[in-house]
C-alpha cells in the first residue's frame, strides 16, 4: 500500500479557514497548506519559527510559475527572516507575509485574476 502526502492537483479558491484547517474544492484539510501552481499540498508546519528554505522547497521548485507568494503567518503578521526574504527576491518572487486570514482573501482575489500567485498558509483556530 502506498501512502501519499495530501495533494489536490490544480488550483482552487479557498472557501474557508479556521478551526485548525481549510476548506477548498468541496474538501477539508486540517493543518497548514501550500498552494502552488501544481496543486494544493498539506504543509507540515505549525509556527513561523519553522520557516526555512527547506520548508519552501516546493515554492522554489515551481518558481518559474510564481510571481507572488502570500505567506499566512497565523493570527498575526510575522515578518520573514532577512535571508529567506533575500532568497525569494533572488529568484524573482515577491514574498509577502501577512495574517493567514488576509493571505487567504488576497490569494482568492489574485487567483480569480489568473495571476501567478502561490500561498503558504499556517492554520489558525
From TrEMBL:
<dbReference type="Pfam" id="PF04430">
    <property type="entry name" value="DUF498"/>
</dbReference>
<protein>
    <recommendedName>
        <fullName>Mth938-like domain-containing protein</fullName>
    </recommendedName>
</protein>
<dbReference type="InterPro" id="IPR036748">
    <property type="entry name" value="MTH938-like_sf"/>
</dbReference>
<dbReference type="InterPro" id="IPR007523">
    <property type="entry name" value="NDUFAF3/AAMDC"/>
</dbReference>
Amino acid at each position: 500500500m502506498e501512502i501519499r502526502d495530501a495533494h489536490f492537483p490544480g488550483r482552487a479558491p479557498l472557501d474557508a479557514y479556521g478551526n485548525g484547517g481549510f476548506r477548498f474544492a468541496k474538501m477539508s484539510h486540517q493543518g497548514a497548506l501550500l498552494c502552488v501552481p501544481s496543486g494544493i499540498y498539506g504543509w507540515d508546519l505549525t509556527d513561523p519559527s519553522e520557516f526555512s528554505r527547506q520548508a519552501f522547497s516546493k515554492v522554489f521548485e515551481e518558481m518559474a510559475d510564481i510571481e507572488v507568494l502570500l505567506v499566512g503567518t497565523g493570527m498575526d503578521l510575522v515578518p520573514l527572516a532577512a535571508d529567506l526574504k533575500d532568497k525569494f527576491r533572488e529568484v524573482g518572487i515577491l514574498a509577502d507575509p501577512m495574517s493567514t486570514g488576509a493571505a487567504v482573501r488576497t490569494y482568492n482575489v489574485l487567483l480569480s485574476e489568473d495571476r501567478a500567485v502561490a500561498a503558504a498558509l499556517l492554520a489558525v483556530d
